Amino acid sequence: MNVLRDNNLETKVKNLIRNFSLMILCYFLFFIVLQFLSVFIFELDLQKYEQIEILESLKENPLKFIFLAAIAAPVIEESIFRSILKPSATSLKIFICAILYLFGLILIPENAHWALKYILLLGVLALIYYAMGELIPERYYRRACYWLHRYYLIIWILGAIIFGFVHIYNYVDTFQLDLVLFLMIFPRIIAGYFFGKIKLENKGMIWPILMHSMNNSLVLIFVLPFTLSHFTWS
User: Fold this and answer.
1) DSSP 35
2) How many CB atoms lie within 10 A of CB 194?
């Protein structure tokens, strides 16, 4: 890991592109190894699990899906998994708001309009963020930051692993694990590693969010036309 000494925006953007390119390269290397294992060592049924619900969501409301994949998911997931990685007081408050967001999703009825739901949640969380700044003394944030900074390496790697395992639910309704499922989520562990890396190097929450959005948007560019045409003709 190369922590940037230069706070120049151009340097950070170049580092973002560099890490994104390395992540894509790791994806390619992983899929080459996976293909080798599938053909020569294991008889892997890589079609065993499919993201049916995600594809159905894409078919039913493409605009909502694009918003969730390219904007909402990167913001929320990075706020949960990377905000406590060498945090500041600001990112600690963001982490707490992200956890409360998950509870908010449970409380708001599923049939509520998706745009109104996210606007409501954003407004409530903005008030909570402000209240935490006013009600909780700064020294408590400093203590928490000091402790979390000491264990940043554990938080970085563990966060990447948990980030990957959470995506098991893209394929199954209840938690389960076998070799095929693990191989399906392994690219997410790779992504989680690089999202943490860019956060540490560029020293800011915006960078893993941008990289996460770039990752999801790249997938959308390839998947969206094919999926929509497939559902149109089927």
Assistant:
1) H
2) 20
Q: What is the crossing angle of helices 179-202 and 73-81, to 10°?
A: 80
Domain residues for the domain of 144 are 9-233
With beta carbons less than 8 A apart as the criterion, state whether 168 and 176 touch: yes
Which tokens belong to 114? Answer: 């998706």
Residue 227 is predicted with a pLDDT of: 59
Q: Which of 104, 88, 201 is nearest to 148 (CA)?
A: 88
Give pLDDT tens digits for 48-58: 777 666 767 77
pLDDT at 62: 81
CB-based contacts of 225, cutoff 8 Å, min separation 6: none
Q: Which residue has the higher pLDDT, 66 or 5?
A: 66
Q: Would you say residue 4 lies in a domain?
A: no
- Do residues 148 and 91 touch, judged by C-beta distance below 8 A? no
Residue 233 banded pLDDT, cuts 50, 70, 90:
very low
Q: Which bin fits 110, alpha (ψ -120 to 50), beta or left (φ > 0)? A: alpha
Note the pLDDT tens digit of each residue in 16-26: 999 999 999 99
- Residue 2 counted as domain residue: no
pLDDT of residue 225: 67
What's the token pair of residue 135? 């009600």
Total tally of structural domains belonging to the chain: 1
For residues 20 and 215, is the Cβ–Cβ distance under 8 A? yes
Distance CA 49, CA 226 (A): 19
